[in-house]
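Exercise: predict the fold of this chain.
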Amino acid sequence: MNKIKIITDSCCSLTKEQLENLGVDFLAMDITVDGETFNSFNPPISDPEEFYLRLEKSESCSTSCINIFLFQEIFEKYVKQGYDVFYIGLSGGMSCTNNNAKVAADEINKTYGKHVWVADSLSGSFAIAYDVIMAKRLADEGKSAQQIFEALDRNGLKTFAIFAPGDLKFLKRSGRISKFVASVGSMLKLVPVITANEKGELKLFSKAIGRKKALATIKTFLLENAELKSAGRIYIGHTGQKEEAEEMAAFLRANSTNKEIVIDFIDYTMGCNCGPKTLSVFGFLK
């Protein structure tokens, strides 16, 4: 059996150093904030708190898909070195990146035989981190790239992501919600609570009047849907809401036997889409 190389993208909310320590390669999306474009793993502002404060004051921000050529280049590099490749990144329901990876994989597989498998996470951020870490574990156990694909494709781990954004204008900019919904939501002080559907597209889970009620909705979701009684890491991701994250962690510790609750910043790529002052929770479904 060939060696396995795992590849992901910059939407996994793991740092460059964490991925390198895992032996996982990666491709980065470009981010443009107020006309300045930079690689998401090499930003002009390395401090996440400072970055999200700047983003809050920005007039425009956008992210770009990873193109087919870059995928072909990295897939071919490892196939020529004798690897089978497993790639998993941002949901195909949120970005064209996943489709670009599949197109590139098809071309490489036509040329060299079947050596590249592209999975769809159906999610983003720390939900992808679960997949990356599990893929590495399975590879270390001697599983093939195809077996890893079969275990993880289309949310094979049964993870969830739920979040409350801070400002609807960022979801409006990225096309996740309409301008009308954003304007009405802002006027009425509505805070959407958002998850992903079975296609990996963002969907409205609930609308709450005010931030406190939105966070209460997330807590209710966790009690009703999350696996809180068995071992397994729970991620609390945020874009500058550390106090809320700490409060959510205290709630989870009081209602869970799970001891591994990790609070961390959401990566810049995902953060540009959900915006500053977002709080999110990632875990496993019952």
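Check your answer against the key: The chain has two domains: 3-29+65-152, 159-284.
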